[in-house]
Design a protein that fits this description.
single chain; alpha/beta; Alpha-D-Glucose-1,6-Bisphosphate, Chain A, domain 3; TATA-Binding Protein; 3 domains; 25 strands; globular; binds 1,6-di-O-phosphono-alpha-D-glucopyranose
């Protein structure tokens, strides 16, 4: 089969955001749009491998740089997943990869992708997902490159990919028929072996290494019940296999377990607003005490008790508090913990008590990669419903659920009791994120600039009943690689341990989304209503930004 070189012209809007390239599906469906990006990823990787020889394609039709290398491909099953996989197989073969591993059915959760890359020593992987965003021809699609360590490409690499997208003039492909990706097996296309693999095997084996499956099975045998909402995303098959088949949870434990291209018409986003079915079922008097949900690609998670919502910052802190005694994989203790800047500081207090470091990074799982690779931290988490550990280099929804299952099994307590015990010991970080969606991008950027200009005069000022102790546009220097990241978010800290962080989302596909992160720490008063406790901070944030005057927005689009 002959490799062909297809002429193309650059698209100028292919800069990856917080987590890869996310766009409306129809943008991805334009001729050459996906192909350009995939070829640019390969050009960037090739250039970086060759110590930065400029990444244009070699003139020979069959580039040799990917000899002996394996690429993993899979996605969350959303609309356009299948045609995108076929295109990627052709371009990977055109670029001379030795092997392309494709998840059966094209469905591979993001954490499983990370596990497969690491276990099979692949060069990297392409994840097809727009995460928690809806799917369909008029909804969202995305693509992200993960590196050899199993983690999302760091900023230096994504910037390099972007530069390649601006100068691309051709890509390599083949005229080959579609590969049957629904059956295990392998075939050769040109010189490339394309192998279809079981997406559940590596990931389940890894979970069994970390958790005490026998103890969890006993817990279900003794009558423990839970509900897990897969939201019609990629985690359905994993959850059925692990919770129902392996651990013996009753059939029906997994809700919305069949992956669907449009996620049943819903936002596959595990929060109180979008996982409404789960929330309603748990409110029933006979409901189990434990509920959880994951997003479409399975890296985000939400943890619920019958009467409580565990905020992501608290979930990270509780897991950090209990991991060493409740989960075999962490028996040796934690080397450190990490959280993103906007994430609540709850885990910092657990780290202080344990005498370990707590790192604060910019938003984006990619910033945890170097810390994890260097062994500086074991657990990481983000307010955006992401929790994970050094077992892979992505956040991991099912892993987080297994952590909670383990600590509930060991403690024999309810979710609410575990949470209240934690607050009694460490105090409580009341936390909320307020999102304002679909703002005019230019005006939102101007608003952030105006806010930044106010920062130097802030310290010492009183805002409502709060006194500002520090105010800055935060920049970050990676302690391992020395890489610098600017504008990670604007942070105002108040003298009573309250904080507001302001930033614009890097994952939206329409206009700009403003995120306000509100946090207030209380040592004793741990049972108050979150909204009431945080209302004064929300008001201060709105006033400082002039949200009402600029956009006429009275209230946030979503509160999580
Ligand atoms: C991605 C990143 C996360 C980040 C989140 C929110 O999550 O992987 O690290 O916290 O986006 O980013 P932003 O606030 O810029 O929208 P996911 O689950 O969407 O891949």
């Amino acid at each position: 089969m002959r490799i062909k070189t297809v002429p193309t012209v650059p698209f100028r809007d292919q800069r990856p955001g917080t987590s890869g390239l996310r766009k409306k599906t129809r943008e991805f469906m334009q001729p050459n749009y996906l192909e350009n990006f995939v070829q640019s990823v390969f050009n960037a990787i090739r250039a970086l491998q060759n110590r930065d020889r400029e990444g244009a394609l070699p003139q020979s039709a069959s580039p040799a740089d990917f000899d002996n290398t394996t690429l993993v491909v899979g996605g969350d099953g959303r609309y356009y997943n299948r045609p995108a996989i076929q295109a990627i197989i052709r371009i990977a073969a055109g670029n001379g990869f030795a092997r392309v591993l494709v998840a059966r059915g094209g469905i591979l959760s993001t954490p499983a992708m990370s596990a497969v890359i690491r276990r099979r020593k692949a060069l990297g992987g392409l994840v097809l997902s727009a995460s928690h965003n809806p799917g369909g021809p008029d909804e969202d699609f995305g693509i992200k490159y993960n590196m050899q360590n199993g983690g999302p490409a760091p900023e230096q690499v994504t910037e390099r990919i972007f530069r390649e997208t601006l100068k691309i003039d051709r890509y390599c492909s083949l005229d080959s028929p579609d590969v049957d990706i629904d059956r295990d097996g392998s075939l050769k296309i040109a010189g490339t072996e394309v192998a279809i693999f079981d997406p559940l095997a590596d990931y389940s084996a890894l979970m069994e290494e970390l958790f005490d499956f026998e103890a969890l099975r006993a817990h279900f045998r003794n009558g423990f019940r839970m509900l897990f909402d897969a939201m019609h995303g990629a985690t359905g098959p994993y959850a059925r296999h692990i919770f129902e088949e392996r651990l013996g949870a009753p059939p029906g434990t997994v809700l919305h377990g069949d992956p669907l291209e449009d996620f049943g018409g819903h936002h596959p986003d595990p929060n109180l607003a979008y996982a409404a079915d789960l929330v309603r079922l748990l409110a029933d008097g006979n409901a189990p005490d434990f509920g959880a949900a994951c997003d479409a690609d399975g890296d985000r998670n939400m943890i619920l008790g019958r009467t409580v919502f565990v905020s992501p910052g608290d979930s990270l802190a509780v897991i950090a508090e209990h991991a060493a005694h409740a989960i075999p994989g962490y028996r040796g203790g934690l080397s450190g913990v990490a959280r993103s800047l906007p994430t609540s500081t709850a885990v910092d207090r657990v780290a202080r008590a344990a005498g370990i470091n707590s790192f604060e990074t910019p938003t984006g799982w990619k910033y945890f990669g170097a810390l994890l690779d260097a062994g500086l931290c074991t657990l990481c988490g983000e307010e955006s419903f992401g929790t994970g550990s050094n077992h892979i280099r992505e956040k991991d929804g099912i892993w987080a659920v297994l952590c909670w299952l383990s600590l509930l099994a060991v403690s024999k307590k309810s979710v609410a009791e575990v949470l209240h015990d934690h607050w009694r010991k460490f105090g409580r970080s009341y936390f909320q994120r307020h999102d304002y969606d679909k703002l005019v991008a230019k005006s939102a950027a101007a608003m952030m600039q105006d806010l930044e200009a106010q920062m130097p005069g802030m310290p010492g000022r009183s805002l409502g009943n709060f006194v500002v102790s520090s105010a800055e546009d935060v920049s970050y220097r990676d302690p391992v690689t020395g890489a610098e990241t600017e504008h990670a978010g604007i942070r105002i800290v108040f003298s009573n341990d309250s904080r507001i962080v302001f930033r614009l989302s890097g994952t939206g596909t329409e206009g700009a989304t403003l995120r306000l992160y509100l946090e207030r720490y209380e040592r004793e008063n741990t049972d108050a209503d979150v909204e009431t406790v945080l209302a004064p901070l929300a008001e201060i944030a709105r006033e400082l930004l002039g949200l009402q005057q600029r956009f006429g927005r009275e209230k946030p689009t979503v509160i999580t």
